[in-house]
Amino acid sequence: MILRGGTSAKNYTTSAMNNHLQYKHPDEHKAVKLATNAKKSECVLPDADAGRTQPTLAEFTAKRKTWAIDSAEASRVHAAIGRMIAIDVQPYSVVEDDGFKGIVRELEPKYVLPSRKYFSTKVIPEMYESTRARVQSEVDHAKSVCLTADTWTAQNTTQSFFSLTAHWVTTVTRRSAVLQCQLFEGSHTEIRLASALTEMLSSWNIEHDRVHVVLRDGGANMVKAMRDTDLTHVSCFAHTLQLSLHDAILSQKSVADLLRDARKLVGHFKHSSSITSRHVYTTYSRCTNSCRT
Hints:
This protein is α/β, with parallel strands linked by helices. The chain has helices spanning 15-24, 26-43, 57-64, 72-87, 98-107, 116-141, 190-203, 220-228, 237-250, 253-270, 273-292; strands at residues 145-153, 160-169, 174-183, 211-216, 233-235. It has a five-stranded mixed β-sheet with strand order 3-2-1-4-5. It is elongated and about 120 Å long.
C-alpha cells in the first residue's frame, strides 16, 4: 500500500507527488520536466506571429474604423464603381440597391457606400473631365481629323440625338473617340444641324482646316448642313448599300408576303400566353422523344 500523505481530498491530486519529487528527488524531477517541455515544443507548430505583442487599443480601433469618404482608399473604390456605372450603362440608383450594398460590405467593411447623388455630381463628372482632357490632348496633337456625324433615335424612345465621332492617326495606331452626343429636339433642319456641328467643333478646338473629311448619311438635310459648314464630306457607303438592298428586297412580292405572314405568326403567339406555353411544351416533348429513339 502507498500512502498519499494524508486523508483529505487535496492529497488525492498529483500536486503532492509533484512536490515530493521536487524536494526529495530534485535531479529526477528536473530531468522529467526537461523531457516534458521538449515533447511539448515538438508538438507545437511554428507561429508566424511569435514574438508579437498584443495589439494596442489604438491599433484595434484603427482596424474597426471606416474610411473617410475623401480618403485615398475610398477614392479608389469610388472610381471603380464609377467605371462600372459608365461602362455597363448602369443607373446611379444601383448604389442604393440592397444586393449591391451587401456585396460591397462583404468585400470591404471599412468602405462606406455614398449616395447616388455623390456619384452623379462628383465621381462621374470628375471621370468625364479627366477622360475629356486626355482625349483633348490627343486631338490637339493630331495634324488632321476625320469626323463621323449622325442623328439617331434611342431604342424604345422617341428622343433624337446628334453625335460626333473623331478619328485620327498617331505615330503608331489609329485612334477614335465619341467627342459629343447631345439631345437634339425639334426639327432636323440643315440650319440647326450645321449650327450644332459648328458648336461641337468649337468646343473641341478643331479648326476647319484640320478636318480632313466628314462621313455622313445620305439625308438631304445632312448634305445641306455639310455644305453650309463648308466642310469636305462624303456619304457612308454602308448606309447607302443598306438602303438600296432594303428597297430592292421589299419590292419583291414574295418577300413582302413572307414578312406579312411572319408578323402574323409572331403576333399570334405574342398575344396568347396559353398558346405559347402549349407550343413550348409540345416542342420539348418532341425533342425528348426524338432523343430517346
